[in-house]
Amino acid sequence: MRRLDAPPVPLVLILGSLLAFAATAVGTHSNDQLTWAGLGGLVERMVALGIVALGQTFVILARSIDLSVAQVISVAAVMASFVMQGRVGMIGPAVALTLAIAVAIGLVNGLLVVRARVNPFIATLGVGLCVQGVLSAAFTDFAGSVPRGFQVLAYGSVGGLPLPILLLLLLTALCWLVLEHTRFGAHLHAVGGNAEGARQAGIHTGGVLIAAHVVCGALAGLAGLYLAARLRSGAPWIGRDGVYDLQSIAVVVIGGTLLSGGRGGVWGSVAGALLFATLDAMFTMLAVDPFFQQVLRGVVVIAAVAVYSSRSRLLVA
Question: How far is CA 94 from CA 97, 251, 260, in A?
């Protein structure tokens, strides 16, 4: 049986990440990384992945998955910069259009899974490939630019706290409130834990699953907007090269959400994103070869699946 006095997974991940970061900074004489600016930079590394992981948590809790998030990020970044073209007056229309497209892609994913009964892995992978194909055919390079006023999303601050960090904290708190203190959150856990039992209890399981995919699409679109502000433009390879699809799944699982659904939460997912950001920062300080970095990330993903399998056996026992 699982120990009842075991520390919560998010706390373990956060403390472990910070200790590893501090030890690497001291060992490599990168003392500037231990300043408030250095720690702020570490947290900002995780913002995009953290936002995507929030959405991925919703679908995984419902015993589904979304492999199209990387393409949604690319679409959002490209469409935002293409529509804005550096004009402040186009920020509103660009954001509205971008989020509408992201929500539409999430809706298509949900309908394919629920109505067409396509396996979530295949459905979202297929949708992602279609989106990437259209995007790559229409855009071959950076598209347009975002105005300085929109770049505040990535570089601004409120009360001395960087705006991206504040945005991630607010989104995490909002998602936590939805999952833990609303009927939708309760239904989502019920559907992921036992879909047939939830159906017999009168829960519209299909609607819950579709809504989870819509939330995931919307948050991936928001992550794309953030990346457009940070990079000052958007390109069709931003999401794909960031491997946000697989990495978001990995951090969600590392954070304690079961792939079999029904158990988990967003704070663990954000803590998992912090772990990945810490690994990237440590690789930079240690000057690890970029190709070997991919190997190490792969090891982490495998370890996450191993942890998931072990946790599943303990919960069943």
Answer: 5, 30, 37
The domains located in the chain, with CATH, are 9-316 (1.10.3470)
- Identify the CA nearest to 213 among candidates 70, 67, 48: 67
Q: Which amino acid is at 101?
A: I
Which stretches in the chain have pLDDT values below 70?
1-7, 304-305, 307-317
Rg (CA), the chain: 19
Residue range 89-148, pLDDT digits in tens: 999 999 999 999 999 999 999 999 999 999 999 999 999 999 999 998 888 888 889 999
HEC states along 117-162?
CCCHHHHHHHHHHHHHHHHHHHCCCCECCCCHHHHHHHHCEECCEE
- Alpha-carbon gap, residue 58 to 10, rounded angstroms: 17
Quote helix, strand, coil % in the chain, to nearest 5. 75, 0, 20
Cβ-contact 235, 78 below 8 angstroms: yes
The letter for the amino acid at 18 is L
Q: Do β-strands 161-162 and 157-158 pair in parallel, antiparallel, or remain unpaired?
A: antiparallel
Residue 234: helix, strand or coil by DSSP?
A: strand
- Would you tell me how many other CB atoms lie within 10 Å of the CB of residue 297? 18
pTM for the model stands at 0.92
**One-letter amino acid of 105:** I
pLDDT digits (tens, 9 = 90+) for 268-277: 999 999 999 9
